[in-house]
Amino acid sequence: MTIPLSLQRGLRLPVIASPMFIISNPDLVIAQCKAGVIGSFPALNARPASALDEWLDRITTELAEHDALHPDRPAAPFAVNQIVHKSNDRLEHDLEVCVRYKVPLVITSLGAQTQVYEAVHSYGGIVMHDVINQRFAHKAIEKGADSLILVATGAGGHAGVQSPFALMQETREWFDGPIALSGAIANGRAILAARALGADFAYVGSAFIATTEANAAAAYKQAIVDSDASDIIYSNLFTGVHGNYLRASIAASGLDPDNLPESDPSKMDFGGNSAKAWRDIWGAGQGVGAIHEVVGAGELVERLAREYEAAKAGLV
Predict the structure, then answer these.
(1) I want to staple 79 with a disulfide (CB 3.0 to 4.6 A). Which of 34, 105, 175, 252 is the partner?
(2) Which DSSP string do the residues of the chain spell out, in sequence order?
């Protein structure tokens, strides 16, 4: 297990904060990086497309200012998520902006394209591709991805159905590059468990929804605090891709969480309809039971670090 040198600077915990549609914004990313974990956001969160340049300018400027003031504890790197799917008509534009800013880490989802990887590699950037099974993992590496994000069962938003144990062990049989593991990771013990399974990083999402910087409604944040694993519903109805969502938000929309129809995957899109779905139907993973209050992102990372060190010391 090896974390690339370019991603080690300022890293306090082996954690990548997952890019969450609508939720992740510059405030959250900057706070995550300053606290010592890799912050990220989906390029599509910057709307209109011209806002992506503004977001990256702010993030790079503020993190550089932080590093100048705190050379003894520089900020961790940041990442941008690109949706590599035919419905994303912004991909070419957004990729060009990322190349211009030399984004350290680009996370690709829903499609593996050689030209995307080559563009990021042109300036020395690293590409992580998220996958839910071995077929997609092999395809991504064959096309040029540097590393993988294994999205196991229980992860928030779009997620797979395989156990993290099975997904990790099968991937490590053929791939020795960097891996991030996703799936109900919301405390320090779970971060250590991901490392023990063979991952370089834990991929943490839902816990960051319940932070003051996250672009989520107060009711959404409180629902994260109030929920546990039994409140998570797995469905493909809302975007065409299976994912995990909060039961309360589904019920509030007038649907029966226990009797949801299947959606046509061919109608998946990342335009206005998808954005509306994510605003009204709240994504979350099965790790929500470990989240008990809304705090700042820095305070959350402090908690995770304390729990991680205690777990390593055998104190919990």
Answers:
(1) 105
(2) ----GGGTTT-SSSEEEPP-TTT--HHHHHHHHHHTSBEEEEGGGSSSTTHHHHHHHHHHHHHHHHHHH-TTSPPPPEEEEEE-STT-TTHHHHHHHHHHHT-SEEEEES---HHHHHHHHTTT-EEEEEESSHHHHHHHHHHT-SEEEEE-TT-SEE---S-HHHHHHHHHTT--S-EEEESS--SHHHHHHHHHHT-SEEEE-HHHHTBTTSS--HHHHHHHHH--GGGEEEESTTTSS-EEEEHHHHHHTT--TTSPPPP-GGG---SHHHHHHHHHS-B--GGGGG--S-B-HHHHHHHHHHHHHHHHTT--
Could you tell me the pTM of the whole model? 0.94
* CB 159, CB 165: distance < 8 Å: no
Is 199's pLDDT higher than 70? yes
Closest CA to 36 of 216, 201, 206: 201
For residue range 254-272, list pLDDT tens digits in order.
999 999 988 766 655 555 5
Q: Kindly report the CA angle at 203 between 95 and 278, in degrees rounded to 5?
A: 65
pLDDT value, residue 265: 64
Residues present in the chain in total = 316
